[in-house]
Amino acid sequence: MSDGIPPISATLAATVDRYTEFRSASLASWHPIDRQMLIFTRFGDTAQVHQVKFPLGSRKQLTFFSERVSGATYQPTHGDYFVFAKDIGGNEFSQNYRYDLTTGQMTLLTDGHSKNSRGIWANAGTQMVYTSTRRTGKDTDLYLINPLHPDSDRLLCTVEGGGWFPLDWATTDQQIVVSEYISITESYLWIVDVRSGDKTLLTPRTEETVSYQAAVFDKSGQGLYVVCDRDSEFLRLAYFNLSTQEYTYLTQDIPWDIEQLRLSHDGRILAFTANEDGASILHLLDTATRQELPLPALPVGQVYGLNWHKNNQDLGFTLISARSSADVYALNVMTGMVERWTESETGGLNTDTFSEPELVQWQSFDERVISGFLYLPPARFSGKRPVVINIHGGPEGQSRPSFLGRSNFYLNELGVALLFPNVRGSSGYGKTFLKLDNGYLREDSVKDIGALLDWIATCPELDSDRILVTGGSYGGYMSLAVATHYSDRIRASIDIVGISNFVTFLEKTESYRRDLRRVEYGDERDPEMRSFLLRISPLNNAAQIQKPLFVIHGANDPRVPLNEAEQIVTTVRQNQVPVWYLVAKDEGHGFSKKKNVDFQFYATVMFLQTFLLNQLGQ
């Protein structure tokens, strides 16, 4: 549904066309025997599972759904089938399926209705553990299934809450380490006995809340490698002895958050990444000596999806940078050779000329230093440049150097600077910074953007009179909040799947995530907190929005329900300011289908041309 948006001209679509043809690829799974892999990439409208049999080999498409597919993993001993997940219309109620490689036949493994995680394989390859909300609709209980026999599906243990996730199987397949996620700064590890379903708390609740972000068993079964912020400002890699309950910290020399963790199948090498000033830096640790191993230099960007082949030599991963869309690589840890497995299309554009991000900093209202990444347009654009401020979601997300895709059009063709701030509450800067926007501190993050507006006014290359603010999810709330607090200092705002009223959001978000969000935003059932949340909600301050607004939402959004968009559009239109409204009936929390993403892009370009650049009639 398009409401208030002028017709999209064929000329505009043709002008931006090349910027809509970027592809990307991400690693899904290594075959357990052959040196080949499953990847995700898009040839049509949505990302599907493809098979690649050698570096830079052809991408053979295996699934052909109208909906995007995720989480594909080979059966880990023979690899004659794989299990994947798929939802409908972005509703996030994913179902698991078995794909038989010999026949191409697909079999539903879950109930078809509840929300299910794709799960992780036991070492023997005869069963998977996954979570499902089927019992209560909100609790993510643990289930076991042999994908070859769907009728083997059984409940392993019940839990309370929507934040439970299995992390790893012990070598014997008799125990599973499970995470209980309360918030970004608080989580716990449990051991679940596979035979009885009994669960034992490994990390007791203490006065100091601790976040455990990853955990894998060592091959002896005597301990776990964990990532946690216990007694630390940042997430560290540690070895946790199951008998003594003692921690041995292994990354004391890295003053940044440790993120992913993958142990080679023989247990000799631990691969992990560190978030160093927004970039992902890959590390390899010899588990016997606990010394780091040398690595070849990789481009500065994001490294994710670490995945070891059973040969214990090839470490697969996905790499994305400012000048390269996501592609799949493999590092041979014995030789140090890096092989590129996919080379995604770039619409015929030379990405080597694309803008690289610059780390910038400014001082906020309380003298705290806030940072972000600034992309400047090419030098051929003279004079002060208009600015789009793009605020990440989460709120505990983090803007990091990455490939901007379609947004490169704003830089290269419109001459617009792009600025991605990491306001307080963002991850990557320590747990104290992470908590600075919780509860009653919510609007302090909005003040960080006010300080950013002051900083822009001091920059000779940026035009403080031409600023647009945008963001998705929590970033959508931030865009609306900036529009209410600083309407006189911006030209326009774009709200993508954003929160307009914290109370209605908390009351209507899906039940499996409601309590998880209350920890971050506050409990709307408490009268004092409810009053505060209503007072700061953009919907109740919408009279202050006096500049054009573009609201974008998916009709099936389970996180931020469509009502959040409907009510802000209705209310702001009473201000007699232009409001554009776009709803995709087959999308959820953000658009994923190419045809919808393209239309959103066309409309956004036109919105910028009209209200930020004054290039089109208003």
Given the C-alpha coordinates, what overall shape results?
A: globular
User: Span between N and C termini?
Assistant: 21 Å
CATH topology assignment of one domain: Rossmann fold
Determine the number of helices (DSSP H or I, runs of at least 4 residues). 10
Which architecture name of one domain does CATH use?
A: 3-Layer(aba) Sandwich
Sheet having the most strands = 9 strands, mixed
Radius of gyration: 24 Å
Q: Describe the strand arrangement of the main beta sheet, using strand numbers.
A: 1-37-36-35-34-32-33-31-30
Beta strands, count: 37
Helix content class? 10-25%
What layout of secondary structure does this protein have?
Layout: E1 2-3, H1 10-16, E2 25-30, E3 37-41, E4 48-52, E5 60-61, E6 69-74, E7 81-86, E8 95-100, E9 106-108, E10 120-121, E11 128-132, E12 141-146, E13 149-157, E14 164-169, E15 175-183, E16 186-193, E17 199-201, E18 212-217, E19 223-228, E20 236-241, E21 247-249, E22 257-263, E23 269-276, E24 279-286, E25 291-292, E26 302-308, E27 314-321, E28 324-332, E29 338-340, E30 358-363, E31 369-375, E32 385-391, H2 408-412, E33 417-422, H3 431-434, H4 444-457, E34 462-472, H5 474-485, E35 492-496, H6 502-508, H7 511-521, H8 527-536, E36 549-554, H9 563-572, E37 579-584, H10 594-612
Helix pairs in contact: 4-5, 6-7
